[in-house]
Amino acid sequence: MCHCNVINTDGEREVTPIPSNQDTEFESSACLEEYDAIGKVPHQMKLHKINDSVKFVFPFIIEGMEFSDSLCDTGANLNVMSKAIANELGMCDIKPPHGSVKFGDNSSMIPYGFITDLMVQVGGCLIPVYFYILEMENDSPRALIFGSSFLATVGAVVDYPNRRVCFSKVKRRIFYPAVCSGGSSYCITIYKE
Predict the structure, then answer these.
(1) Can you list the positions of beta strands (E) in the chain?
(2) Which of 46, 126, 150, 180 is the most exposed place for a label (fewest CB within 10 A)?
(3) Which of 52, 56, 45 is nearest to 179 (CA)?
(4) What stretches of the chain show up as alpha helix (H) in DSSP?
(5) What is the spatial distance between Cα 66 and Cα 59, in angstroms, rounded to a whole number?
(6) Which residues, 6+ apart, have CB-to-CB distance to 165 below 8 Å?
(7) pLDDT digits (tens), the chain, 193 positions
(8) Is 126 helix (H, G, I), strand (E, B) or coil?
(9) At residue 86, what are phi and psi to the nearest 5 degrees?
(10) What are the chain's domains?
(11) In Å, how far are 52, 78, 133, 165 from 187, measured between CA atoms?
């Protein structure tokens, strides 16, 4: 039987037996040499770094209005809707803001307000979403941004190698494509004043 030096949670070294596979025979000395050095991993491979957080687009419906390509941003902490879209949807239950929003480029702004539990239809599911309403340029290409809270709610499974995402709690076999971030940052956080 082979043994391996292991460091336990208390930081102490232990000699632990390595389970043997009945189909494979190990020579005891070769096994100990291979696993003796801490941090030395047999058959180690190098992975290449991914430099950008991935953003996805997907279709959905709010209040009967269809949106074909709103942004699902894995780096955003909250959900954002432009004031123009809120007005177009006839949103009248906009609550006053209680803090400021800080963007990934370190700029910040006070939102127009926020809407709680707005029902968003994705596929056959209705999802309650909390949106911060921001005044954006009228020609903003992504006037709706869905962040990590939305991704968690729909059970998003991000397939980074194939640059796509599926919403496992909505429908597992439908994938939405990644889009190029275009150099701008949609990452935002909230700072309460």
Answers:
(1) 2-7, 13-18, 55-62, 65-73, 79-82, 100-103, 108-109, 113-122, 125-134, 144-146, 156-159, 164-167, 171-179, 188-191
(2) 46
(3) 56
(4) 28-36, 83-88, 148-153
(5) 7
(6) 54, 56, 58, 72, 151, 156, 157, 158, 159, 175, 176, 178
(7) 555 555 555 656 666 565 555 444 444 444 445 445 555 666 778 887 766 666 788 899 999 999 987 888 888 888 999 998 999 999 988 999 988 888 878 888 899 999 999 999 998 899 999 999 998 876 565 688 999 999 999 999 988 888 888 999 998 888 888 876 554 444 444 444 4
(8) strand
(9) -60, -40
(10) 2-36 (no CATH), 55-191 (2.40.70.10)
(11) 12, 9, 15, 18
Residue 31, phi then psi, degrees to nearest 5:
-65, -45
